[in-house]
Amino acid sequence: MKLTNLKTLFILLAMVVFMSCSDDDDATIPTDDMMMNDDDDDMVVVDFSGTFVQEDQMGRPGINTVLSPDSTTENAFNVTIPSEQGAAFQPTFLQRAVDLHAAFGVEYETNILGLDAPTLTTILASDVLQVAPDAPTSYFDGTNVLTGRTLTDDVIDISLILFFGGQNGDRFNGQDTDGDGTPDLPILVTDGVSAAGETPSNSFPYLEAPHN
């Protein structure tokens, strides 16, 4: 299972616990005994006092991991609010894009959306998930771009294609660029984890049955 999927699962499970609170007290959670015995006396009061700080964010999974050149940048990105991320991180993300392509002796190629490196990194530097109320929900389906995200969207593959795929979506796909029979470009347009067969449930938290 992808790391991003594990993070999402943890968040959803945490939300389930809090959504299971009694209707008359939003600051209580059930204990394990209550979960097993259906006993309201086992409710535990949760202390929400104190000062809370932002530790992480993941509007678009994988972007920070790929475009931050080091852990210091990655951690700083996680604690910066989206409205300040563009000015703070777009230059770094742009340089990272240039460097990653240069490492393989190529320059960034305008991607399948017609976006050059400065434009794409400007979009990605603000880590928010847009929602288009009047368009089909899709991370990218060939027509709709970042209009939301469905549970079956292969976000990592889409992100890699937009970043490395070039004009036809398969630039970094193990090509032999010099014709010597040996691939010169790595496969960077997929993580190799298929999303085929994903069948999330129709009710919260929308988890699918365990894979055997």
Question: Can you tell me about this structure?
Answer:
With 212 residues, the protein is mainly α. Among the domains are: 3-45, no CATH class; 63-164, no CATH class. It is 36% helix and 3% strand. The chain has seven helices and two strands, in the order H-E-H-E-H-H-H-H-H. The chain has a two-stranded antiparallel ribbon. Helix 5 runs antiparallel to helix 6 (117-125). The longest helix has 21 residues, at 82-102. The chain is globular and about 70 Å long. Residues 1-25 have low confidence and may be disordered.
How would the blueprint of this fold be written?
Blueprint (H helix, E strand, L loop, with lengths): L2 H17 L8 E3 L1 H6 L5 E3 L17 H5 L3 H8 L3 H21 L14 H9 L29 H10 L48
Antiparallel strand pairs: 1-2
